[in-house]
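Newbie here. two chains, one complex. Structure please?
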Amino acid sequence: MAMPMRRTLVALHRATCRRLTNAEVSLDVRHPGPLFLPVRTKKRYFIPPAVGMKTKMEGFTEAKARAAGIVGKQENIERPINISCTAGVFDPYVPPEGDARLSTLSKEGLKQRAEQIRQSATSQLAIRKIKEHDSLFKTRDFAERAQEIFVEAHNALTQFNKEKLHSLVTERCYPEMTRGNRYKTIRWSFIESLEPPRVVHARCTDMVAKGNVYGQVTVRMHSRQTLAIYDRFGRLMLGSEEQPKDVLEYLVIERHLVNPYGRWRLHGKIVPSWAPAKDPIIKVTFYSAPADNIYLLVRKRQRSKPLSLSKGD
Amino acid sequence: SLESKAWEKKNLKVYPPQLPDEPRRPAEIHHSRRQIKYSKDKMWYLAKMIQGLSIDEAIAQLEFNDKKGAKIMKEVLLEAQEKAVKNHNVEYKSNLYVAESYSGKGRYLKRIRYHGRGMFGIMDKVYCHYFVKLVEGSPPKTVEKTSFDQAKQYVQNLKSRTIIHSL
């Protein structure tokens, strides 16, 4: 696709010649538009755009301007951010060791049962402060409401209903719940509650400004649940749908008390130090081909001794 | 559209949970690298070389290949293997094979190549994309058909002809 370059030069030459003949133009008088147009104005050649010109120009202006001290128009640095939840759990509740593992008839069990929230003074103060802002607060009703919030939030997680989930769960808890779950199917069901939920702990904290009060209440609940997580291809990854598990949980529910439209939302869970989250057991569910090959290889080498390898499960 | 990322979107498809009596669905991982500074025709040779091999074999072949594209392709395969184990719930990293592998044309830059007598040509600075699809499991064994088999098939076809409307 070689095109003659000469045509460009000829055209330029012609244009300059024409301009020179026009006496008015040579006297440096500026016309609004050309009076004489050359006949062949159609561009019949192609020059690919010279790359590097544009990028050089951009870098050139910014650096030079900054060095010269010229301050350009400032872009919007201020951006209002609405904080409607705290960053973590303040003064986390330390659950007593062996909670729900001892029978209630033993001495320690009785001690635990007798433990009332009235023992802790700070919790009482916090509850009083919460009642200042929300007069209808009652510990007994609140515990049941907390369980309802928990169940609804997990149902919304299975359907992945973002709006509902945001209204039931704080912004700090949302990524914890949904990380890595977007392309997975979760099936969760709440079978029954083994013990009535109890409020065990309460705290009130201020964020940023003095009067900006947030209330955090910890609820202890013992329940039976089933959880099954399927990966992107519909294969069972974790848990099982038929096998229910007894779960003892300490939920932290939070509310922005000063805000009249604030709602009690799930803020997080407290994992006791004596019951850390264990890794799921590695269960080989199918008999894979590489294992087969290794078996044959080993079998070939030791022909005298017959081997028996346990295959999968 | 020139910037369509259809290959990457295939990784976002979610299947409904399988019933217990269904056979286990093998995991599929789609990975690609865009705008590689290499020719798509030269890349094609390497892509078709590793198509159908298990991932360990493919990586081994690319490691000892002298071409420039082989090094890049090996990086892409290792990335894809890591993603498979981390994000797509693949149990064993060696239990994968290359199901599809091909190269495509990227977006070229154009420059002037000067010829004599004031002539010029437009030079393309070539770029290519490379796409690979890994599937869980052992590679499928292709039954090689020998020439004798084909001849036998031909004779069989001839013998099984029927003449219609005959006596």
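Moderator note: Confidence is low (pLDDT under 50) at residues 1-11, 19-26, 302-313 of chain A. Strands of chain A lie at 3-4, 185-206, 213-230, 236-256, 265-269. Thread marked as resolved.
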